[in-house]
């Protein structure tokens, strides 16, 4: 298999099993190649590892590909776009790994290589960098990147990307107290995404619009959100958190919504490395309530603190309901109940099992 056939095989891969096989094949192929052919295989190998969430190996492959293209570009500037591509991939990898300083450097190095060139690569990098700045609440930096990306997307006429950028920029304005501008941008984003029928993008915009709606509009939008099929887990967490806050404001039972938000928010953090909502705050809200979920929240918080944040000061009651579920999985049994809490505890227990943890 040559380099182009390897790239094509990756593009046509149907499941993780095929990717695992390609990962093994890619390592042996790259050793026998040089120059551009080697760079193509290494870059694709990095993408395969990234898809498999083998992030350390993905980083190594991307860095090796970057070195190949840096050397090639010294003799032929035609290879500079490949340098930019490698840096962009590294930026995305570091962002998912929560190595934000490294991600920023990779993205900004890519922009330096591009110089004044305004092309699709620049647009992609500005979008990724601006979105990361928005997540980190670096409002001025985020606004600068997202506005430039928006102007480029507008010229290109990409309605899907325009909607995404307007939504992200609205979040920046929202956090900066510029609520009127945020609401206007969200409506523009919704119009753009409605034109292309981008359900996931529409759902994200609708979720951000919730605080601006009156009671009737809110009911209609919540019904529409719940009519969507599979939403990203971070978006589900935000919707559950909004429901919890609304219930709390109305004096209704909010604990079940806060628990759902906490579980979904934790899983988003565990699976993808970003915090969509403050799941610890949500657990505290359940703990402060008189709900029957209170003890579950106490134990779940301690488990997360001990095994994901490394706290040695917490003692976990493994005779509690959550504790018994964890022990069941560690002892080779299963959790014979369904629900978001049970799914979360099962995931945690499986992590502990893989790590060889004893309780």
* Percentage of β-strand residues: under 5%
Mean pLDDT: 91
CATH architecture assignment of the domain at 1-117: Alpha Horseshoe
Succession of helices and strands:
HHHHHHHHHHHHHHHHHH
CATH class of the domain at 1-117: Mainly Alpha
Radius of gyration: 23 Å
* CATH H-level superfamily of the domain at 1-117: Tetratricopeptide repeat domain
Class derived from helix and strand content? mainly alpha
Assign the CATH topology of the domain at 1-117.
Serine Threonine Protein Phosphatase 5, Tetratricopeptide repeat
What best-fitting shape do the alpha-carbon axes yield?
globular
Helix tally?
18
CA-to-CA gap between the ends?
48 Å
Sheet of most strands: none
Residue runs with pLDDT of under 50 for 5 or more positions: none
State the share of residues found in helices, binned by percent. over 70%
Number of strands: 0
InterPro entries: TPR-like_helical_dom_sf (IPR011990), TPR_rpt (IPR019734)
Keywords: Repeat, TPR repeat
Explained architecture:
The chain has helices at 3-11, 16-31, 35-51, 55-75, 80-96, 100-114, 120-135, 139-156, 159-175, 179-196, 199-209, 215-227, 233-249, 255-272, 279-288, 294-308, 321-330, 340-354. With 359 residues, the protein is mainly α. Helix 5 (80-96) packs parallel to helix 7, helix 13 packs antiparallel against helix 14 (255-272) and helix 14 packs parallel to helix 18 (340-354). The chain starts with a helix and ends in a 5-residue tail after the last helix.
């Amino acid at each position: 298999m040559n380099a182009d056939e390897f790239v094509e095989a990756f593009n046509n891969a149907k499941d993780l099993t095929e990717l695992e096989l390609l990962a093994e094949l890619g390592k042996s192929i790259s050793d026998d190649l040089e120059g551009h052919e080697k760079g193509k295989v290494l870059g694709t190998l990095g993408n395969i590892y990234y898809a498999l969430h083998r992030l350390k190996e993905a980083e190594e492959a991307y860095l090796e590909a970057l070195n190949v293209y840096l050397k090639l570009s010294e003799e032929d500037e035609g290879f500079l776009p490949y340098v930019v591509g490698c840096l962009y991939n590294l930026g995305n990898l570091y962002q998912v790994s929560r190595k934000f300083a490294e991600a920023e450097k990779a993205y900004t190095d890519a922009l330096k290589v591009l110089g004044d060139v305004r092309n699709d690569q620049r647009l992609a990098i500005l979008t990724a960098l601006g979105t990361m700045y928005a997540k980190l609440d670096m409002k001025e930096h985020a606004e600068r990147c997202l506005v430039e990306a928006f102007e480029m997307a507008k010229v290109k006429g990409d309605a899907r990307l325009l909607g995404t950028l307007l939504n992200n920029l609205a979040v920046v304005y929202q956090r900066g107290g510029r609520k009127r501008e945020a609401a206007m941008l969200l409506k523009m984003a919704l119009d753009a995404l409605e034109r292309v029928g981008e359900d996931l993008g529409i759902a994200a915009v609708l979720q951000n619009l919730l605080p601006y709606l009156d009671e009737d509009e809110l009911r209609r939008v919540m019904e529409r959100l719940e009519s969507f099929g599979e939403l990203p887990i971070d978006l589900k967490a935000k919707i559950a958190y909004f429901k919890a806050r609304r219930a709390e404001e109305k004096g209704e039972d909010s604990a079940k919504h806060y628990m759902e938000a906490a579980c979904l928010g934790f899983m988003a953090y565990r699976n993808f490395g970003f915090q969509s909502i403050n799941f610890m705050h949500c657990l505290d809200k359940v703990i402060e309530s008189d709900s029957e979920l209170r003890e579950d929240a106490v134990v779940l918080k301690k488990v997360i603190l001990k095994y994901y944040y490394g706290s040695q000061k917490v003692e976990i009651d493994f005779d509690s309901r959550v504790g018994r579920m964890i022990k069941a999985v560690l002892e080779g049994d299963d959790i014979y109940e369904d629900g978001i809490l049970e799914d979360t505890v099962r995931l945690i227990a499986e992590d502990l099992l893989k790590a060889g943890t004893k309780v």
